[in-house]
Amino acid sequence: MFRGILDDFLSLFQTDFYLEVWRLILALWPVWLPLFLISLFLGTWFSCKRREFIRAQGNVLLEIRLPKEIERSPAAMEMVLESMWEDVPGSLTDVYLEGAVRNWFSLEIVSIGGEVKFFIWTWPKWRQVVETRIYSQYPGVEIVEVKDYALDLIFDPAQTKVKGITTRLVKEDALPIKTYIDFGLDKTDKESEQIVDPIAPVLEYLGARKPGEVAAVQILIQGHRGQGFQDVMLTPKRHFSKEVKVAVEKIAKDAAYFKGEEGKPLSILNLTKTQTEAITSIERNAGKHAYDTQLRLMYFSTLEADDKNSTAGMIGSMRQFGFVGSNTVLNGIRPNKFIPGIVYPWEDFLDIRRIENQKLHLDAFKRRSFFNVPYKHMMGKPYILTVEELATLFHFPGAAVTTPTLTRVPSKKAEAPSNLPT
Fold first, then answer.
1. Is the dihedral of CA 326, 340, 159, 360 positive or negative?
2. What CA–CA distance (Å, rounded) separates 141 from 408?
3. Is 223 helix (H, G, I), strand (E, B) or coil?
């Protein structure tokens, strides 16, 4: 019976139609074979040259140690991110012969056994720029180069466990998430008890980790630009701001509680307060620099210290950003892929996929790799966040955030008086 079914299936490919298709493919091999070989060669060439280029850049991990008091709003971090934005990969010779790629950064909030720290990972040639910009906005901080904590995370399936989440936006890129301005953090005249900082739940979750646990929020960013030939792309990719007009029109039409008269365009009088505020937020964000982004969450632990609710805890700590979904007019961030990503035992009987997924996620995390080889767009695609949105997700909290395990320098430093005797 099985042989009969197989013969019937194979007979489908012996019809006149399929025979003609195969004859055409064989007849056109002088066309498609060279194109295939050229494509294979170029793909291998760019992959190898980019690996060499990235390896030659090196990397540095900077720890930002916070003072006890920070009086700056997240607008200060927005200014830092503005100055870090860069969109030129180099000349065409650099790109096509040397494998040059655009720089990227990793903004990280990490808990090592409950001790919460802020880090920025970058190429060494960008270190001075990063330090200068941070010191100009946060004069009380200390910035020190430290050994990469991620290198100490060695995955052994018999002793350790890795969990993680990659993310995506709920809606289109032109719609912003809820930012620090929406939370009222742009107003510096508030008393500490009136301040609601959206980063506080994240720090509380991280601060509750125990010895044997490492949890991290890794925000990978690369300056957003319209892409084309200079980026080795045959099909141009437009800048996200081109979508803003469409997004505004969609809100005005689809989300309106009160519709305008048929045949007449909507006016400001037809819009609700929520719609008006949403459109204002969209237009405000569209005028700011933006980054291609991937927010990656990672949890590493020994088997004994493993928190069974770690994934739920990570999601819950970020729900205020619209992490699970968005029932508002604007956007949100939500999980895209879960690691290890195996739901039922029969999906991976020998645990091969589970172990491989954990290895890949941890290795990509260590390399801060997402925009380029070796883990380009692994388990997700980049989405676009402006500097205002990123400053909401990553900023240095003030006194209103009282996480006891958040690392802070013991005292505020000041310059020596100028009249001291020499």
1. negative
2. 9
3. strand
The conformation of residue 227, written as its DSSP 8-state character, comes to: B
d(CA 155, CA 357): 11
Across 1-10, 176-185, 225-234, 348-357, least confident range: 1-10
Beta-carbon count within 10 A of 295 CB: 25
What is the rounded (10 degree) CA torsion for 192, 197, 201, 204? -40
Close Cβ partners of 406 (under 8 Å, ≥ 6 residues apart): 66, 116, 203, 207, 397
pLDDT in tens, 55-93: 999 999 999 999 988 889 999 999 999 999 988 888 889
Is the pLDDT at 203 greater than 90? The verdict is yes
Tens of pLDDT along 236-270?
A: 888 888 888 888 877 777 655 555 555 555 555 56
Question: CA-to-CA distance for 394 and 106, rounded, in angstroms?
Answer: 11
Q: What is the 3-state secondary structure (H, E, C) of 336-354?
A: EEEECCCCCHHHCCCCHHH
How much of the chain is helix, strand and coil, in % rounded to 5?
A: 40, 20, 40
Write down the pLDDT at residue 346: 73
Q: Write out the H or E segment, with its range, that includes residue 387.
A: helix 387-393
Q: In Å, how far from its chain's centre is CA 377?
A: 11
Quick check: 311 and 299 in contact, CB under 8 A? Answer: yes
pLDDT bucket at 182, cuts 50 / 70 / 90: confident
Q: In the chain, what percentage of residues exceed pLDDT 90?
A: 55
Q: Are 353 and 344 in contact (CB under 8 A)?
A: no
Structure token pair of residue 154: 């060695």
The identity of residue 353, as a single letter, is: R
- Looking from the CA of 372 toward its CB, the CA atoms found within 13 Å total 24
Q: Is the peptide bond before 340 cis (omega within 30 degrees of 0)?
A: yes
CA distances from 114 to 91, 149, 215, 293, 412 (A): 45, 14, 9, 26, 24
Alpha carbons within 13 A on the beta-carbon side of 163:
19
